[in-house]
Fold this protein.
Amino acid sequence: MKYIFLLTLSISLIACNNHNKDYEALKGKVDSLENKLADAYKPGFGELMTSVQAHHAKLWFAGKNQNWKLADFEIHEINEVLENIKKYQSERKESKSIDMITPAIDSVKTAVKNKNLQYFNKSYISLTDACNRCHKLTDFEFNIVKIPDKQSFSNQDFKIE
Ligand code: HEC
């Protein structure tokens, strides 16, 4: 009886010890993952906006040249960056206002789909106004966006044959 008791006791001690080891190993893994996450690269709001700015400019020259495929692509890129702002900058209160630009983007999308240059020009002005409206709303009114007057991406061809 005494032996059985001692055996049970030592088995449970070994089991407990193993549990502790498992726990320590798991904790080590969680800690190292937490450290990796803390060091993970996260794009900044301004960085993402600079990307929106580039696609906004490219969209203009694509539309001007009636390169509708490229224009459609640029709209897609703008939407992708805006989604990334919501994803990576969710803690910034300004991110809640991102969707105010959706109707303006949709109008440009319709113009591009219908290959309508006149409507493209009009909707692009509204899109640019929407950018600035959000900048005002979020107290970044000094970031003024305008229709580009010069194609600054000299390494990209916006014309189609
Ligand atoms: C949430 C509403 C919102 C919308 C919509 C928006 N922006 Fe912004 N934008 C911001 C905020 C906030 C900042 C400042 C980011 C920061 O803290 O660095 C900014 C900054 C910028 C900057 C300055 C980046 C720099 O570092 O110089 C540019 C350029 C810009 N936005 C372009 C645009 C364009 C183009 C559009 C429209 C296609 C647009 N934004 C739409 C909120 C918005």
Observations:
- The pocket of heme C is lined by residues 45-46, 49-50, 52-53, 56, 78, 94, 97-98, 100-101, 127, 131, 134-135, 138, 140, 143, 145 (CB under 6 Å).
